[in-house]
Amino acid sequence: MTFEVKILGSNSASFAFGRHHTSQLVNSNQNLFLIDCGEATQIQLLRYQIRYSRINHIFISHLHGDHYLGLIGLIFTNHLQGRTEDLHVYGPKGLDEIITIQLKHSDSRLNYNLHFHQIDEENQLLFENEDIEVRPIKMDHRIPCFGYVFKEKERKFRLNREILPNSLSKENLIDLKEGKDIVDTDGKTWTNASLASPPHLPRSYVYCADTRFHAEIRPQVQNANLLYHEATFLNDMQARAETTFHSTAQEAARFAAIHNVRQLLIGHFSSRYFDVQPFLTEAKPEFENTILAIEGQTFEVTPVQPIKVKENNVEIVNN
């Protein structure tokens, strides 16, 4: 199943050096979710040939302009292009007021229903389908700000169809998908391991928006497959990061190490930096598996394969 993140914008408060305001696109099994919607998000969607109409859910972290000023334009463009499907927008208190007052004073009546979902508390269930669920996580920023956790649901065992015997009933197949051993219609016993493969462990993508460094463990982040964490400054600007409620590259890497994540993605670079490679240089000693959020690049949320060991010649799956 596809689970990946595309970077549309990677800069902080100002457009600079070809970098745009924050925006990302999450693809879960070909369902597209937009996280934050900075000023040039429409341009970036066009550049990377992503149809606006495929995005039905937009998650806004907070009400600083570099994270939402592109939203009203995207809403209008969907209207002008004849959208009829509902659009759902998630964010902190006040986002609905900002958008609806613009619609009111322009006397605009959209072709589609626009639904606002206010985030009231951490970890509330915002969205779910058969593949994933999305929940907010609180950030430590100057105004109310939320990150988002995209987590896959538990999946069933995968049948090895090329070796399935003809003597299996429908109930046998259901039991195999549940991880059970079976007795077929001929009375023969089959172990689950002989006919099915264990599913990948559920993957998670954690988006940590604007925030100061958290030293304490956040359970929602622990063991994430891919973590995005803002890294606005380099370490020589740590005092500035603290007073502006942001993080350095070193602090983002330390946060990743504390939480035992598999891979760290850093972005939200300050416009004071032309070259962002020093961010990587600073982060890697703290957390080696760090990569830069480069616009246009797509990053897979890589699954962890179950570990297979043998005890007394019997194969056991260790998750």
Could you walk me through the main structural features you see in this protein, from its secondary elements to its overall organization?
The protein has 319 residues and is of the alpha/beta class. It has 2 domains: 3-155 and 199-300, 4-Layer Sandwich (Metallo-beta-lactamase, Chain A); 158-198, no CATH class. It has helices at residues 41-47, 71-80, 95-105, 170-177, 192-195, 238-243, 249-258, 277-283, and strands at 3-9, 23-28, 31-35, 55-59, 87-91, 114-118, 127-128, 132-138, 146-152, 158-159, 182-183, 189-190, 196-197, 204-208, 226-230, 264-267, 290-292, 298-300, 307-311, 314-318. The strands form 5 sheets. A 7-stranded mixed beta sheet has the order 6-5-4-3-2-1-18. A 7-stranded mixed beta sheet has the order 7-8-9-14-15-16-17, covered by helices on one side. A hairpin with a 5-residue loop joins strand 11 and strand 12 (189-190). The longest helix has 11 residues, at 95-105. Residues 307-319 have low confidence and may be disordered.
